[in-house]
Amino acid sequence: MKKKKNRHVLIWILITLLIIASIAGAYYYFFIRGKQVKDTGKQLTVYTVKSVKHTETIEVSGNIEPIEAENLKFHVNGFVSKVYVEEGNYVRAGTLVAELDNTQQIYELKQVEYNIEQKKVEGAKRDIELLEMEKQLREKAVEERKLYSSISGYVSAVNIEEGDYVAAGSNTPAVRVINISSLKADVEVDELDVPLVKKNQKVTFSFDALPDLKVTGTVENIPLEGEVTSEGIAVLNTEIVINRPPKEIHPGYSFTAEIIVNPEEEILIVNKDAVMEKNGRKIAFPAPQEGSAQGNNSRPRPLTVKTASYNDKEVKVISGLKEGDRVLSATELLAGFKKSSSSGSSNPLAIFGFPQGKFGKRPPPPKKSSGK
Asked: Are 2-50+267-352 and 58-66+182-266 the same fold in CATH?
């Protein structure tokens, strides 16, 4: 009878030792060898908090334009008698670029001037006043047949030739002049980003046609009134300018640009799966030190952290962690807890991905001896 009881006690001791050995082995496999986080699907991923250089920007895009442009058109009908410029010529403001035949207008002006001289001889002062007014109208008619550039710049297009007939109100300009001493673009800034944009902020440009070229510009003008897009989003068409642009950039080129809201700074980032939100606070689980032995009580203890959005894969760490900290995948931890709860598992290592072994359940107690 006593020997039988001693045998039962011995069996219990062996089972207990095996359970302790199993748990200790599992903890060793997980915590001590935590650096091998992706060797098997049974281990939690470990993420490291990194320091990166970050610049807060607003991305915009569009097509570059001349800082000034003028489409020169005749406002009267007539035949082109002279074209004084060619494409590529540089002209200054006030330069005569073309004119229509004005033979009839010159004749009428000379006729009025002759009549004025005749009236001066006769002494008809009232008639002279009326003729002077008519002379002004004839002079204006002569000038209307001349085309001047009102800006300084390069001739980018000449669409007329001598002898061509020009109709007033034509949609095609006779001559186009552009000022490319600076380039500009009107870009749409979302209403949510408008408070961040200020005049004279730095803008960096990248051009599709010139992938190796980086150009710097500035925010020049922010309008007082916004517009609503077809998607129902309010935007402000903000003007950005490149002063003294490289010659490789031509008006019309497409670009992407970044408005520099805040200058470069060092920030901490970590994979977004390392942080979870619980009861209104964000928490992370520190991973064990690499190469250090852990006791049975070395389970991950949550840390309260503060984060902000950064990109699709990572978050910006504001507080609670420092550079080099190693944290467990909160996403995988949460999945393990949910799996354990839904399955009703009593395995204490279920949240770490370990299967229910033969020691996961307590063995039934030995049957009592009848004394026979």
From this structure: no
For residue 202, the surrounding DSSP H or E stretch is: strand 202-207
Count the alpha carbons within 13 Å of 12 in the hemisphere toward its beta carbon. 10
Which CATH architecture best describes the domain 71-176?
Beta Barrel (2.40)
- Name the one residue in this structure whose structure tokens are 């004119």: 99
Question: pTM (2 decimals)?
Answer: 0.61
Sign of the torsion angle spanned by Cα atoms 34, 40, 45, 50: positive
Give the start-to-end residue ranges of the domains of the chain.
2-50+267-352, 58-66+182-266, 71-176
Q: What class, spelled out in words, does domain 58-66+182-266 have in CATH?
A: mainly beta
Q: What is the pLDDT along the chain (372 residues), one digit of tens a residue?
A: 545 556 666 666 666 665 555 444 444 444 444 434 443 345 788 999 998 887 788 999 999 999 999 999 999 999 999 999 999 999 999 999 999 999 999 999 999 999 998 888 877 788 888 999 999 999 999 999 999 999 999 999 999 999 999 999 889 999 999 999 999 999 999 999 999 999 999 999 999 999 999 999 999 999 999 999 888 889 999 999 999 999 999 999 999 999 999 877 788 989 998 898 878 889 898 987 765 544 444 556 788 999 988 888 999 999 999 999 999 988 887 776 666 556 555 444 344 444 444 334 445 555 555 544
CB atoms within 10 A of CB 178: 20
Q: What fold, for 2-50+267-352? A: 2.40.420
